[in-house]
Specification:
5% strand; binds iron/sulfur cluster; single chain; four-stranded antiparallel sheet; mainly alpha
Length: 328
């Protein structure tokens, strides 16, 4: 392995690029919104990537796609991103969490601070496992509402209703104009993330739970060669998801984010590797590159086939946003 480009540095570089990209998208969307609300005369195209921050809307779009074969016309890019992440999770574990998600990146930063201060822990499994069920409970709750409680008619009505149409503007306001309650929740989560590793991702994020389930069935997993392993435990120590890698022949855990840090920490060449169906070994960087390639591939496909931008003339946004923001 090239000692200069370690899995940790490789991951950090990709995380940084995507986090900066999200900040750029946020500024572009804010400029668009300012134009749409008549606060600015300079038109800025609405960046479709902003819909990646609307997972509930994407889940509803997925339901509509499955039930009626209709692609979401309100937030088409959100559905594209959602499907890309599902495919990504199946093929390359939770590569989205490991390399792309900006929330995961921020969570990792707090985890690093916690580790440096010798504070960050993963609670004992008697506490850890029950807490982990919280995110699956939240996922089950949303899945129940979207797939069982709502009729397909009410899904369609919600998707074209004011609340969903301007959900992106409301999401932006959460960051630009946070309430005291939002700030308090964020501060509590930040403080908790220093003492409990990746507390949000590990226990509370339903999106991560969904991706973990697809990853669980996927073909790619960390494999350990028992014959060369010296049982030093360095893989386990370095795993950000707290997986006891040194005790496993194959890591199928839905917590594995495909970061390859266990491989980077292992002192024995080829003892740990990513393998596909336990047969074919792939390089440690293939998961990160594969995750990014899938996202870009879906983006290009959606752009070329009109599955990315809403089919609404730009001028219409100037009517929709002020009106819908008022009544939603
Ligand atoms: S668990 Fe959720 S917040 Fe954390 S990295 Fe994954 S998708 Fe992002
Ligand atoms: S098992 Fe390896 S690849 Fe998976 S999360 Fe842990 S360190 Fe990363
Ligand atoms: S770091 Fe490598 S050698 Fe050490 S326990 Fe893990 S797999 Fe075995």
């Amino acid at each position: 392995m090239n000692k200069q480009i370690t899995p940790a540095r490789f991951r950090l570089a990709i995380q940084l690029v995507f986090t900066l990209f999200c900040v750029y998208v946020g500024f572009r969307f804010a400029a668009f919104l300012s134009w749409a609300l008549g606060e600015s005369t300079e038109y800025v195209a609405r960046p479709g990537a902003v819909e990646g921050f609307l997972p509930i809307s994407a889940l509803l779009g997925f339901r509509q796609l499955l039930s009626e074969g209709i692609w979401d016309v309100v937030h088409p890019a959100g559905l594209t991103i959602f499907l890309a992440l599902i495919v990504m999770a199946f093929l390359f574990r939770k590569g989205f969490c490991g390399y792309i998600c900006p929330v995961g990146f921020i969570s990792n930063l707090f985890e690093r601070i916690g580790r440096k201060m010798h504070l960050a822990i993963i609670p004992h499994k008697w506490i850890d496992y029950p807490l982990m069920t919280l995110k699956y409970g939240l996922l089950g709750f949303f899945a129940y509402i979207v797939f069982f409680s709502m009729s397909i008619r009410s899904v369609g009505e919600f998707m074209t209703g004011p609340y969903n149409v301007v959900a992106d503007a409301k999401m932006l306001a959460l960051f630009t104009n946070p309430t005291a309650m939002t700030m308090m929740v964020l501060l509590v989560l930040a403080a908790l993330s220093i003492v409990i590793r990746n507390v949000w991702c590990r226990y509370l994020c339903p999106y991560g739970a969904l991706l973990g389930l697809f990853a669980w069935f996927g073909p790619t997993a960390i494999a350990r060669d028992e014959t060369t392993c010296i049982d030093c435990g360095k893989c386990t120590k370095g795993c950000p998801s707290g997986i006891t890698v040194h005790e496993k022949m194959i890591v199928r855990s839905p917590e594995c984010i495909g970061c390859a840090e266990c491989i980077g920490n292992c002192p024995v060449d080829d003892c740990l590797s990513f393998s596909v169906y336990k047969r074919v070994k792939i390089p440690w960087f293939a998961v990160g590159i594969g995750a990014v390639a899938i996202l870009l591939g879906f983006y290009l496909w959606a752009k070329m086939t009109s599955h990315w931008d809403p089919s609404v003339p730009a001028e219409m946004f100037r009517k929709i946003y002020p009106m819908f923001l008022k009544i939603s």
